[in-house]
Every structure is written in C-alpha cells, then in structure tokens.
C-alpha cells in the first residue's frame, strides 16, 4: 500500500480506536490503575493529528516516527512509552521501505514487539500486550501472510487467552488471581485498533 493511502487509513482507524476509551478504562480498573483508556484515546487522537500533518512525500519511517512520538506524548504512561518506543524502533529498521508492503508490515510488528518485550521485561504468558503482538508477528510470517481479517481473529484469540492468565507485570500483578476472567487492556487495545482498520 502506498504511504499516503496507508497514512490516511491509519489516521481514520486511530479516530475509531479512541472510541474504546471507556471499555479500556473499565478493563484496566479491574486489573490495573485505570488509566489505559485515557492513554489509548489521547495517544490515538495525537497520532491521527500527527499523521494528517505529514507532507505528501512522507516515507514509511516518517509515519512510524511521527506515530511513535505522538502516542508517547498523548498521555505519558508506561504503556504509552512502550508503544511509542516500539514504533520509533520500527522506523529505524524500515528506513529504506517505500511502501507498506507485507514484508514492511512484518518488520514493523516484529521490531515493535521485541522492543516492547525488552523494555517492559515481559514475555508471552505474562498477560500483557505481547500476548497479542507475538501471535500477530507469527501470523505475518506465514506464507502467504495473514489477511487483515485473519489478523483480527488472531488478536481476538490472544485477548481471550489473557483471561486465563494471572497478571505478572506492572500494577496488574498486584491483583494476582483476581485478574482472572478479565481480558488484558493493552491486548484489547491492539484488537480494537485492528478492528478499526478493518472498518475504516
């Protein structure tokens, strides 16, 4: 997909993702500090504005740098810093990319995922956003790569899986087994973004 078309599509999806604020706040309040909804909504709104401000000659890396910086400053938090840092790291490995083709999207997801894992000190099974991001990366390495609809299904399965995991990282870890049965908010945010892409 051409960069300008992808940028407009992502910005529209961010507008829709911001609508998940109340749901994400409720999930995070049940197993966290309750600020995730504000973080995601503010970050998504900042990303949409930043992408729409890019010039027509913006490259893939420009889009990722702008999105990463915007998400991180939207509502400063650990989640915002991790996601923002993941996107900025992805910008570095896609510096030569001219379009959002399957190989570039795969590089974005895998690099952002590894960066979030390293900086957050988390792993799959810890009941974090990684429980969706890692399966998405695997789906994108398939031949042929997964379609958007298949990625949504993969993310949905990952979110469902988090309901059986005891939180192991961040403030969610404080609630221990009381977090069982509640989907992870960060994982849910990724699912809502993919669903927004699908409907934009």
UniProtKB/TrEMBL annotation:
<protein>
    <submittedName>
        <fullName>Dihydroxyacetone kinase, C-terminal domain</fullName>
    </submittedName>
</protein>
<dbReference type="Pfam" id="PF02734">
    <property type="entry name" value="Dak2"/>
</dbReference>
<dbReference type="InterPro" id="IPR036117">
    <property type="entry name" value="DhaL_dom_sf"/>
</dbReference>
<keyword id="KW-0418">Kinase</keyword>
<dbReference type="GO" id="GO:0019563">
    <property type="term" value="P:glycerol catabolic process"/>
</dbReference>
<dbReference type="InterPro" id="IPR050861">
    <property type="entry name" value="Dihydroxyacetone_Kinase"/>
</dbReference>
<keyword id="KW-0808">Transferase</keyword>
<dbReference type="InterPro" id="IPR004007">
    <property type="entry name" value="DhaL_dom"/>
</dbReference>
<dbReference type="GO" id="GO:0005829">
    <property type="term" value="C:cytosol"/>
</dbReference>
<feature type="domain" description="DhaL">
    <location>
        <begin position="4"/>
        <end position="199"/>
    </location>
</feature>
<dbReference type="GO" id="GO:0004371">
    <property type="term" value="F:glycerone kinase activity"/>
</dbReference>
């Amino acid at each position: 997909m051409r960069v300008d078309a992808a940028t407009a599509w992502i910005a529209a999806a961010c507008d829709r993702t911001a609508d998940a604020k109340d749901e994400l706040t409720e999930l995070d309040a049940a197993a966290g500090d309750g600020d995730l909804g504000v973080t995601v909504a503010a970050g998504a709104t900042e990303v949409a504005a930043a992408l729409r401000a890019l010039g027509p000659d913006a490259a893939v890396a420009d889009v990722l740098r702008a999105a990463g910086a915007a998400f991180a400053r939207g509502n400063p938090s650990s989640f915002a810093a991790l996601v923002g840092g993941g996107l900025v790291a992805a910008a570095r490995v896609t510096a030569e990319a001219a379009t959002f083709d399957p190989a570039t999207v795969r590089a974005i997801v895998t690099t952002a995922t590894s960066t979030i894992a390293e900086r957050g000190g988390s792993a799959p099974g810890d009941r974090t956003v990684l429980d969706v991001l890692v399966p998405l990366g695997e789906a994108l390495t398939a031949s042929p790569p997964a379609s958007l609809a298949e990625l949504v299904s993969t993310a949905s399965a990952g979110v469902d899986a988090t309901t059986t995991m005891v939180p192991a990282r961040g403030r969610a870890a404080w609630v221990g087994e009381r977090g069982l049965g509640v989907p992870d908010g960060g994982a849910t945010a990724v699912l809502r973004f993919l669903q927004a892409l699908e409907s934009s």
